[in-house]
Design goal:
Blueprint: H1 6-18, H2 21-28, H3 32-46, E1 51-53, E2 58-60, H4 62-88, E3 94-100, H5 105-119, E4 123-129, H6 132-140, E5 146-151, E6 158-173, H7 184-187, E7 192-195, H8 200-209, E8 219-222, H9 225-233, E9 239-242, H10 246-249, E10 255-258, E11 266-274, H11 284-293, H12 311-315
Parallel strand pairs: 3-4, 3-5, 7-8
Antiparallel strand pairs: 1-2, 5-11, 6-9, 6-10, 6-11
Helix pairs in contact: 1-2, 1-3, 1-4, 2-3, 5-11
């Protein structure tokens, strides 16, 4: 039997997770043929078939399934050994696998990256954008180190560090700028545009409005906040947006932005990581930089406001 390499195990782990050669290759940042060759060599080394290749999809053999579970554990332990070595030297140097949700990434991540470059130039940020469920799973399985998400995450194995609390604001067509701000009862009867299922911001909006998406309200869906704003600008509905998104998303849109009556809906944004991560103590330095990127000195109940019309002024 030839030696089995960590590279082969990483490629096989990716293939087992994605069940697709192309997606696994992209995950490993290699070409599909290169990944296929390594999988074949792994099968040759073991003298057994691991992957049953079909016309459109692949399945793992019984040995392949068993190896996938074992390989994943081995890779986790190898990564932890690497992190332990980093912790004893310069922990904030080298790669940092960093996840962020789509309703935060375009607005806060660039400023955060600039802070990292200034204070930790040897740190190599490897950002990944995805929904909260995927990011938390990747953290649990040691495929991510840290993630920037909406808190709380209700997972006792994770450390949560808040960065800011921001308001949700009402975005309406520009023609409605002088109209009274709707109360919650009125808001529930209006044509509301939401992010598609899977986004935590969607669930937060539904919770605030006390909506039942399949219970009769006129609800439309989009995959990005940018699309929501453009649809509002066309006059077909209204939406809620996190305040940090306003400067970018509404700059060229024909919309009006207004605060909602008290108690205003908010979300808390923060960093999460595994409590038992070898670099856990070092990640607290990232919290400080995240708070600077969020707009200066951290305050647990506010975020630097954009140019937003106050609801009291609109109602006057």
């Amino acid at each position: 039997m030839n030696d089995i390499s960590l590279r082969q195990l990483r490629y096989f782990d990716a293939l087992a997770r994605h069940r697709h050669f192309g997606k696994a290759a992209r995950d490993c940042s290699v070409s599909q043929p290169a990944l296929s060759v390594q999988i074949r060599e792994l099968e040759t080394s073991l003298g057994a078939t691991l992957v049953e290749r079909g016309a459109r999809q692949i399945t793992l053999s019984s040995l392949g399934e068993a190896l996938a579970e074992r390989a994943h554990r081995i890779l986790q332990e190898v990564d932890e050994l690497t992190d332990l070595a980093r912790a004893s030297g310069n922990p904030l140097a080298g790669p940092l696998r960093f996840g962020v949700i789509p309703t935060i990434a375009p607005y806060l991540l660039p400023a955060f990256i600039q802070q990292l470059k200034q204070h930790y130039p040897a740190l190599q940020l490897q950002p990944r954008e995805s929904i909260t469920e995927t990011l938390l799973r990747d953290i649990a399985e040691n495929r991510l180190d840290v993630a920037m998400v909406a808190l709380p995450v209700a997972d006792s194995s994770l450390h949560e560090a808040p960065l800011l609390t921001e308001r949700f604001v009402l975005v309406r067509p520009a023609a409605d700028a002088d109209q009274p701000v709707p109360d919650l009862n009125t808001l529930r009867t209006m044509r509301l545009l939401l992010l598609e299922e899977g986004h935590c911001f969607r669930e937060q909006t539904i919770s605030y409005c006390n909506l039942r998406p399949r219970g009769g309200q006129t609800i439309m869906e989009a995959s990005t906040l940018s699309t929501l704003v453009q649809l509002v600008g066309s006059g077909i509905g209204i939406t809620l947006l996190p305040e940090m998104a306003i400067p970018i998303e509404t700059a060229a849109a024909s919309v009006s932005v207004t605060t909602l009556p008290d108690p205003q809906p908010t979300r808390r944004v923060g960093l999460v990581w595994r409590k038992n991560h070898p670099l856990s103590d070092s990640f607290t330095a990232l919290v400080h930089l995240g708070r600077i990127a969020a707009g200066g000195e951290f305050h647990p109940d506010t975020h630097q406001p954009a140019q937003i019309q106050d609801c009291a002024h609109v109602d006057a």
